[in-house]
C-alpha cells in the first residue's frame, strides 16, 4: 500500500482537529456542570429552610388531626354521660380527663357557665377540627413546596447527567493535551460525587433523573385530594376520611423529608469533593 506524505499530513491534521474538538467538548461540558453546581448551591442556601418549614407544617397538620381525634373520643364520652347522669358528672369527667385535653377545653366549659351539654361540647370539637385543616391550606403547602423543589431537583439531574458524561473521558490524556485546570478539577469532582452516590445507593447504578422525585410525590398527593374532601370546591374533609387523610399527610411529610435529605446529602458530597479535587490537581 502506497502512503504519500500528503495523506499522512492530512490525517495528522484530522487527528489534531478531532482531538481538539474532544478537548473543547470536555471543557464545555465541565463548565456547564460547574455553572449548574453554582446554581444548585444558591438554590439550596435560599430554599432549604423554607422547604423544611413546609414539611414541618405537613407534620403539624397530621399531629393536630390525631390529637383532635383523641380529644373527640374523650368529649363524646363526657357528652354521653351528661344525658344519662347529669351536668355535674360531665364536668367531673372533664376535670379528671387526661392532661392532653389541655386547659382550653376546661376553660371553654367554665366560660359557658359550667353547661356541659353533649351538643355544646360536640360543636366545640367540630369547630376546632375545622380550624386545623382545610383543603385550601393543604393545597397551598403543596404548591409552595413544589415551587421550591422542582428547580432544585431538575438542576441536580442536570449536574449528575453532566458528571456522568465528563467521567467517560480519558482525563489524563485530556490533561496532557492542555485541558483547562478547572475542567480537570470538575472531572475529579465528578468521579468523587458519582462514586459516593453509588455507595449511597447500596452499590447500584446512580439514577440520573431530571428532577422530580418530590414533584411526583406532590402530584400524586394532589390527585388524591378528592378522595378525602367532599368535593372540588369543598373545604371540608369527609367524616369517614379523616384518619386516612392524617396518615396520608404524614406519609407525604416523611417522603419529602427523605428527598430533602438526599438533596442535602448531594450538597455535602459536592463540597467535600471540591476540596479533594483541588488537592488532586495541585499534586
Automatic annotation (TrEMBL):
Transmembrane regions listed in the UniProt entry: 77-99, 105-126
GO MF assignments: lipid binding
Keywords, in A-Z order: Membrane, Transmembrane, Transmembrane helix
One term under GO cellular component: extracellular region
GO biological process, one term: lipid transport
InterPro entries per the UniProt record, alphabetical: ApoL
Family: Belongs to the apolipoprotein L family.
UniProt-recorded name of the protein: Uncharacterized protein
Species this chain originates from: Cyclopterus lumpus (Lumpsucker)
Amino acid at each position: 500500500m502506497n502512503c504519500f506524505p500528503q495523506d499522512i499530513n492530512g490525517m495528522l491534521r484530522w487527528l489534531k482537529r478531532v482531538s481538539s474538538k474532544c478537548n473543547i467538548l470536555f471543557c464545555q461540558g465541565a463548565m456547564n456542570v460547574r455553572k449548574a453546581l453554582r446554581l444548585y448551591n444558591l438554590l439550596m442556601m435560599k430554599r432549604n429552610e423554607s422547604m423544611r418549614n413546609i414539611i414541618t407544617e405537613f407534620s403539624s397538620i397530621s399531629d393536630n388531626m390525631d390529637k383532635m381525634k383523641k380529644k373527640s373520643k374523650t368529649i363524646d364520652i363526657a357528652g354521653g354521660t351528661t344525658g344519662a347522669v347529669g351536668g355535674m358528672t360531665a364536668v367531673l369527667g372533664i376535670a379528671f380527663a387526661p392532661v392532653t385535653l389541655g386547659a382550653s377545653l376546661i376553660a371553654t366549659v367554665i366560660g359557658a357557665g359550667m353547661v356541659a351539654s353533649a351538643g355544646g361540647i360536640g360543636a366545640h370539637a367540630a369547630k376546632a377540627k375545622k380550624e386545623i385543616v382545610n383543603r385550601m391550606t393543604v393545597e397551598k403547602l403543596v404548591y409552595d413546596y413544589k415551587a421550591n423543589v422542582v428547580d432544585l431537583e431538575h438542576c441536580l439531574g442536570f449536574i449528575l447527567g453532566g458528571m456522568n458524561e465528563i467521567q467517560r473521558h480519558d482525563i489524563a490524556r485530556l490533561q496532557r493535551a492542555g485541558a483547562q485546570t478547572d475542567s480537570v478539577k470538575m472531572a475529579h469532582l465528578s468521579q468523587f460525587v458519582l462514586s459516593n452516590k453509588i455507595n449511597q445507593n447500596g452499590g447500584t447504578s446512580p439514577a440520573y433523573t431530571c428532577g422530580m422525585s418530590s414533584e411526583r410525590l406532590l402530584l400524586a398527593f394532589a390527585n388524591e385530594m378528592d378522595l378525602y374532601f367532599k368535593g372540588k370546591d369543598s373545604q371540608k374533609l369527609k367524616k369517614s376520611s379523616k384518619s386516612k387523610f392524617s396518615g396520608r399527610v404524614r406519609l407525604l411529610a416523611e417522603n419529602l423529608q427523605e428527598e430533602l435529605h438526599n438533596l442535602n446529602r448531594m450538597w455535602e458530597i459536592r463540597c467535600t469533593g471540591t476540596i479533594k479535587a483541588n488537592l488532586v490537581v495541585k499534586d
